[in-house]
Write a structure and sequence with these properties.
The protein is of the alpha/beta class and 294 residues long. It is built from seven helices and 13 strands. The strands form three sheets. It has a six-stranded mixed sheet, with helices on one face. It has a five-stranded mixed sheet with strand order 3-2-1-12-13, covered by helices on one side. A two-stranded antiparallel ribbon has the order 4-7.
């Protein structure tokens, strides 16, 4: 992580609030409710829901339209999960006002029934279009996509998850059926396009890129038709700036990922013109620490 990746002054950009949208996002928080301990490690003092909540509220106070999203692996990584199986993590996200999240492989770590049970504490939808949960406890607890109205803009949000076989013990995901994420994402995005969404976002837990032919965010970006933005996870990568790809229609697709452990809060500011054409005006990532909330 470089100092140049940090916005050193304020996370609130000087952008017009009319027809503007700020997208805040996290990934792979891994049950990190408290900051990293002050033990001399490179991450000491970073993260924690209190500092993140302060930053989120600061943006909401100064920007009219804000989306808060997560790309999965909410669970696993601290004693909070070992003891409480995800309840405080979901409650914290609900308190912070997350608009949507997708599932990561570690969200199955206490079993699919546990994840479904913890969603009683969620006031946000879990979106994933390439897992078929028929016959499982998740069958009525998720959506392939959701549409959120922010001012004049309709924002379509879909989710894709990584292949579970070989990554997650079968007894933990049960009857969940994995579907091709490229095909499923294109189908969901086409529906969102038909529903006149002005921006289509994919929350992905595929991972950003691989040396082999494994499906990744990079592959999805190049093979999609209607997705505008992919907010990724799984590989714990930190991007200084979003990566840009060309989709099957020759249009731009942005991909972003902001590390792990809740140490970073990604922010993408979009401006919509009068005819709803969108333009990314600024992308910046803020380190989450106690200093940002003092």
């Amino acid at each position: 992580m470089t100092a140049g990746a940090v916005l050193s002054t304020s996370i609130v950009g000087a952008i017009p609030t009319q027809q503007a949208l700020s997208i805040l996002h996290t990934n792979d928080v891994h049950s990190r409710l408290d900051p990293f301990p002050l033990d001399g490690g490179r991450n000491q003092g970073l993260g924690g829901v209190a500092a993140r909540s302060f930053l989120i509220n600061q943006v909401r106070e100064e920007t009219e339209h804000v989306l808060l999203l997560d790309a999965g692996d909410i669970f696993q990584g601290t004693p909070y999960f070992n003891l409480y199986k995800g309840e405080p993590e979901i409650k914290a996200m609900s308190k912070m006002g997350y608009d949507a999240a997708t599932m990561g492989n570690h969200d199955f770590d206490a079993g699919i029934d546990n994840f479904a049970h913890q969603l009683q504490h969620a006031n946000f939808p879990v979106v994933v279009c390439n897992y078929d949960f028929t016959g499982t406890s998740m069958e009525t607890k998720y959506k392939p996509y959701t549409i959120i109205q922010k001012g004049k803009q309709k924002i379509g949000i879909l989710g894709v998850g990584i292949e579970l076989e070989g990554l997650v013990p079968e007894n933990l995901y049960g009857k969940t059926v994995y579907k091709n994420p490229i095909e499923a994402a294109n189908e969901a995005a086409a529906i969102l396009k038909q529903k006149k969404c002005d921006l289509i976002i994919c929350l992905s837990h595929l991972g950003d890129k691989y040396e082999d032919n494994k499906v990744s965010d990079e592959v999805l970006a190049k093979e999609c038709f209607d997705i505008d933005l992919i907010l990724g996870g799984h590989t714990h990568r930190f991007f200084d700036q979003p990566r840009k790809y060309k989709n099957r229609k020759g249009g731009d697709v942005l991909v972003n990922q902001v590390g792990w452990g809740g140490m970073n809060l990604g922010r993408l500011d979009y401006i919509f013109s009068a005819d709803n054409r969108k333009n990314l005006s600024k992308a910046h990532t803020v380190i989450v620490s106690k200093k940002t909330s003092e």
